[in-house]
Structure formats: structure tokens, C-alpha cells
Write a structure and sequence with these properties.
By secondary structure, the chain is mainly α. The protein has five helices and no strands.
């Protein structure tokens, strides 16, 4: 079971680590797109969200306060989902569908992050292959 959970953590963390690299290496282009979408923060928002995804992804990957990392990911994805993938604002059918798919994908990622939070917080080191016990513990 330890190995399955580790593989799951690696796969989930990989999404956010790769996204963090993209945010930090293409911050100018991403900031232009974020501004176009009406998201607040501009370039600093792109950089901060990239850092949050990178830190959260590493915490999940390493099992270093993984529940905090999972909450950080969820907290980052919530505003990103509503600002960047507001499909209800799109008038073009293809753009609307594309944004709805991205919106739904992000909802699934938020749900997965919350599930990881619950696992880390309720099971702690019993999950195996973690560096720390959780800071937030749910009995």
C-alpha cells in the first residue's frame, strides 16, 4: 500500500511541479494571458501561483507536511479555476467547451488535493514513505 500511495503522490505532484516550471519560466506570457482573462495580480500573481504549486507539489511528493501542501494546492487552484476558466463568459462554442473542460479538470484536481489532505491528516506516517508527521491531524 505504501508503494501505491507513493506512486499516486508522484503523479499528482508532477502535474503541479511541471505547472510551476511553466509559470516561472514563462511568467511574462502567462501574465498577458491572465490579464486578458481578467485575473488579478498580473505577473506577480503568475509567479506566486507558480511558487505555490511548486512548493505544494514538493510537499506532497516528499510527504513533508503533505497535508499542508495539499491545502496549498487546493487554495491556489480555487481562484485560478474561477478566473482563468470562466466558461460561462465565453460566447464562442469551441472556446466555451475548452474552458469548461479545463474548469472541470481543475475541480477534479481540487477534489484530489482535498482527498490527499484528508489522507495525510488522518493517517499521517502510517501512510508510509513520508518525511514528517502531519501538522494538522484529524482523528
Amino acid at each position: 500500500m505504501d508503494t501505491v500511495f507513493l506512486i499516486a503522490r508522484i503523479l499528482v505532484a508532477l502535474i503541479f511541479l511541471l505547472s510551476a516550471v511553466g509559470h516561472l519560466t514563462s511568467a511574462d506570457a502567462m501574465a498577458q494571458y491572465a490579464n486578458y482573462k481578467g485575473a488579478p495580480g498580473g505577473k506577480s500573481g503568475v509567479i506566486l501561483s507558480g511558487i505555490a504549486m511548486g512548493v505544494g507539489g514538493l510537499m506532497i511528493l516528499l510527504g513533508f507536511y503533505g497535508e499542508i501542501g495539499a491545502l496549498l494546492i487546493a487554495a491556489t487552484l480555487i481562484p485560478v479555476t474561477f478566473f482563468m476558466h470562466a466558461f460561462w463568459k465565453e460566447t464562442d462554442a469551441q472556446a466555451r467547451q475548452t474552458e469548461q473542460i479545463s474548469f472541470n479538470k481543475n475541480l477534479g484536481l481540487i477534489g484530489g488535493a482535498l482527498a490527499l489532505f484528508l489522507l495525510f491528516a488522518s493517517q499521517g506516517a502510517a501512510l508510509g514513505l513520508t518525511i514528517t508527521e502531519p501538522l494538522i491531524s484529524i482523528a
